[in-house]
Automatic annotation (TrEMBL):
Its main location: membrane. It is found in: Membrane. It comes from Castilleja foliolosa. This is non-specific serine/threonine protein kinase. InterPro entries: GNK2, GNK2_sf, Kinase-like_dom_sf, Prot_kinase_dom, Protein_kinase_ATP_BS, Ser/Thr_kinase_AS. Coiled coil: none annotated. Keywords: ATP-binding, Glycoprotein, Kinase, Membrane, Nucleotide-binding, Phosphoprotein, Receptor, Repeat, Serine/threonine-protein kinase, Signal, Transferase, Transmembrane, Transmembrane helix. It catalyses: L-seryl-[protein] + ATP = O-phospho-L-seryl-[protein] + ADP + H(+); L-threonyl-[protein] + ATP = O-phospho-L-threonyl-[protein] + ADP + H(+).
Length: 507
């Protein structure tokens, strides 16, 4: 019992470490320093304090404070395109605090967080592309097939770069998406430039960012390249908010003009407001003028109404077309996951006891080997739910989209007659309970391996709850549902079964 409690205590502690925000800052030294309470210091305080409340709808800010060089403080802030406004403001506020502490006297500095970046300087920033300094963060795991992975990644980033450079939406230079490789694994990526650049500048910046991958995150399953003017990220799981990106492209809010922040002069400076509208006198109006005004206003109103109707219909048709394309793509994906019953019977020797790996709550599991020598595990579902065939296929498609190194990968399914089969990757070392409760095998699990297993399970659960396309709650997580591969890496099994059997069957 103590081992069980310790297992989940350490599991919860590890989950805390994975949620910590990371910051990368750089203090420029060639632009000199400033002293506290100096003119530049006061201008910098002014422009930075104005940023959170003035972030535009696309997560971008550009402003300045002061009127005389070299004490003008310029600043830009930029959030990742899929970040919600309130999260964006909070992220920028944290960067302001952190960057002032990290670079307390430098006139120029830049910092990145997971969701945003901030830069300030005593020189103009807007429109000046910078590709240095560069920071990178890499996934610690290697790709299964590095050559295929890099080839697919390169093509995917090239396509996204063109979309981002061409706009990605009004006043947006961001693009995101995913591609599926031959082994059904997905590569998700997001690329982004600050929106003040021309298409060519954005394109060149992203080319520079991608050029860092072979020398920094080569062979890794994920990575981030952070430059002052652009950034990119790629992973083998969904990490961006697709809904938010679509909202920005389809219904952007108007952006206010980018104007510098200046200190208001004292009253004696003669600041005046000018109003060019002169109300008519009592004798200046006549019926002709009134008629012209009514006609012009009516026509303008009709034109505006017609524009709104056209925009509404265009968006509605576009959504329907996109939906139909999605349906076609999903149908083709489902069919690519389908195995015939004759194939499965052949590779499992007609579900012989010799090939049987075990019996679980959802059915028996059999080992098989495909014609390409790939070993598989076939779960022969022992219950028939109330679902129809299409509902079963939909659930399988959702589970197949869950891609993480600490999950047992679903390779496909078979649905013929009363047979419902799930085809998984074969995991060599069976389940964790075979080691924990075996007096001989438990000696294999030294503390280093146990810690590795705990961290892997934590990563898998974090993916379920935070990063996957479908939110999963594993109602039956136990040692027998954690499989170990040849390197003793843990892989969570039997997830998502509630959707295939109904809620009560997994209680």
């Amino acid at each position: 019992m103590m081992l069980h409690d310790l297992f989940f205590l350490i599991l919860q502690i590890n989950l805390l470490f994975f949620s910590v925000e990371s910051y990368e800052s750089y203090c420029y030294k060639h632009n000199g320093n400033y002293t506290l309470n100096s003119t530049y210091s006061n201008n910098l305080d002014t422009v930075l304090s104005s940023i959170p409340a003035n972030i535009s709808f696309n997560g971008f800010y550009n402003g300045s404070a002061g009127s005389q060089n070299p004490d003008i403080a310029y600043a830009i802030a930029h959030c990742r395109g899929d970040v919600l406004p309130h999260i964006c403001r909070g992220c920028i506020q944290d960067l302001i605090t952190n960057l002032r502490a990290a670079c307390p006297h430098q006139r120029q500095a830049v910092e990145w967080a997971d969701d945003c970046m901030l830069k300030y300087s005593n020189q103009t920033i807007l429109g000046n592309m910078e590709t240095l300094p560069a920071f990178y963060l890499c996934n610690t795991e290697n790709a299964t097939n590095p050559n295929e992975f890099l080839t697919n990644l390169r093509g995917h980033l090239d396509n996204l770069r063109e979309k981002a450079a061409d706009g990605g939406g009004p006043l947006m230079k961001v693009a995101a998406g995913n591609i599926t490789m031959n082994d059904f694994q997905n590569i998700f990526a997001l690329v982004q430039c600050t929106p003040d650049f021309s298409p060519d500048d954005c394109r060149n910046c992203l080319i520079s960012a991608a050029a860092w991958i072979p020398t920094t995150c080569n062979r890794r399953r994920g990575g981030r390249i952070l430059l002052p003017s652009c950034n990119l990220r790629y992973e083998m799981y969904l990490f961006f908010n697709e809904t938010r990106l679509q909202e920005l492209v389809e219904s952007p809010a108007p952006q206010p003009p980018l104007t510098p922040i200046t200190r208001l002069p004292p009253p004696s400076s003669g600041l005046q407001l000018t109003n060019n509208f002169n109300p008519p006198g009592p004798n200046s109006g006549n019926n002709t003028t009134r008629t012209i005004i009514i006609v012009v206003v009516s026509i303008a109103g009709c034109l505006i109404l017609a524009d709104f109707v056209c925009i509404f219909l265009k968006k509605r048709i576009k959504r329907r077309l996109e939906k139909s394309h999605e349906n076609v793509d999903e149908i083709s994906t489902v069919e690519s996951l389908k195995y015939t019953l004759s194939t499965i019977k052949a590779v499992t020797n007609d579900f012989s006891d010799y090939n049987k790996l075990g019996q679980g709550g959802f059915g028996a599991v059999y080992k098989g080997k495909l014609s390409n020598d790939r070993e598989i595990a076939v779960k022969r579902l022992s219950k028939i739910s109330g679902q129809g065939d299409q509902e079963f296929k939909n659930e399988v498609l959702l589970l197949a989209k869950l891609q993480h190194r600490n999950l047992v990968r679903l390779l496909g399914f078979c649905l013929e007659g009363i047979e419902k089969l799930l085809i998984y990757e074969f995991v060599q070392n069976a389940s964790l309970d075979k080691f924990i409760f075996d007096p001989v095998k438990r000696s294999v699990l030294d503390w280093e391996k146990r810690h590795k297993i705990i961290r892997g399970i934590a990563r898998g659960i974090l993916y379920f709850h935070e990063d996957s396309q479908v939110r999963i709650i594993h109602r039956d997580l136990k040692p027998s549902n954690v499989l170990l591969n040849g390197a003793m890496d843990p892989k969570i099994a039997d997830f998502g079964m509630a959707g295939l059997f109904g809620q009560d069957d997994t209680q």
